[in-house]
Write a structure and sequence with these properties.
Layout (H helix, E strand, L loop, with lengths): L1 H26 L17 H50 L3 H14 L4 H13 L8 H10 L1
Amino acid sequence: MKCLQSIISFAVLALFGLASAAIQKQTHTKNFADHTQHGTPSLNREAAAGLGTGFGILGVLMIFSCVKIIMEEMWKHKDQNQKTQAAIQKFRELGLNQKEIDDEYDEIILYRGKTEEQAALIRAKRQRRGGAVAVSQNDQGEHEERL
């Protein structure tokens, strides 16, 4: 399908190109005379001042935009680092570590959608196996996406 679209696009472009060449050939006149009726173009003082002012203002605004973008990125990184440090401090205050959080999440995934009786059976099986959590590959993928 893509090949057919490419061929059609190429054919349309070729048609326009041929039509443009034919029109130019019909309307082009061979006139090699000097164009003395028009003087050589020059830039007067007002136009030069306007051109310089326009480019100057554009340059200043572009530099301002770049500086503003860089400053915002620096603020975002600083803010994110502060939030991360605050979260780590909160974990330490609560006495939590990553393994406990992961185990709690695995339990939530393990018991999701189960009735109380099914959850009790799973708890009993886990206690017999020494507390090992059996998490399916799908649930493990969800867990990794969360991290």
